[in-house]
Amino acid sequence: MSEHATPDLTHLATEIKRWGQELGFAHIGIGTADNHPHAQRLNEWLQKGYHGEMGYMSAREALRADANALHEGTVRVISARMDYLAGGEDANTVLQSPQKAYISRYALGRDYHKLIRKRLSQLAQRIEQQAGGRHRAFVDSAPVLERGYAEQAGLGWIGKNSMLINSRAGSWFFLGEIYTSLPLPIDAPQETSHCGSCRACLDDCPTQAIVAPYQVDARRCISYLTIELHGPIPTELRSAMGNRVFGCDDCQLVCPWNKFAQPSTEEDFVPRHQLDNSELLSLFQWTETQFLEQTAGSAIRRIGYPRWLRNLAVGLGNAPHDPAILKALQQRRTEVEEMVAEHIDWAIAQQQQKAALIGSDR
Hints:
This protein has 362 residues and is an alpha+beta fold. Helix content is 43%, strand content 12%.
């Protein structure tokens, strides 16, 4: 099509969805670039301080509230869903094995950012080739209210756990967006909230981070504590973390809608290095070189080696008493920086306390 031809936007929208499926996306929707209701909710969330140390959330709030400010000329947002569950050890089985390390299911394979950004960029290029316009792809890489846009584009509804939920696919999926200057026909939101009276996610959250329906206090959320927080994990929350060392999936695992979750066929999402079923002690004994080797191309690497040890130390403190664990903690104690050492000290105290209880029972 020449750059001066007027595209058939209805046909183009249909083609975009077909091209998206060819690129591995399970659902493509098109919505308006106006996100005022969701921007207002973000502002209220920030005003409550629920973002904790994630200063970038408030620093770039204006760009989240105005798509045109982020990408000039944007009138539509194309939202894309890609499912990521790709096998591995059963999540609940790992959570119920306190000597094992639980890693959020999304992080078991390769980092999703590169894969999805590449696919979305290919889709954006194809749209531009066919119809012109200005387009920009995003995958959790810029201030975009992705769940809000996805809800507006008919990909699902935002549940009480603040996750986007789809009635045919649950919530085990990634989202990505293309900002476009083309006034494509809009997909009506297909689903209002279907959470009803269910409060499974609120009741099951280990640290009670879901402080009210649709409101998550990140400062209590295990995903925030293990990934976003750079300093010490609050002492009062450590025991509730159990063996969760990178992220947390509890609010998804108990969501009834996830019985409809779709398995992914993407090889990049297949668990690597047995991280779906590894012992806490084994991971804690990795050297920094091993950590860098085993997490190459993984979202886990972003937290760095010290925070990896910090999180594992908490998990080891919560594990049943084991002389091998206590020995490993004591040996590592002198090798680490102060922040990590403080968590190791806590874990040692927890292990010693359990040992004392065992001894008193004899």
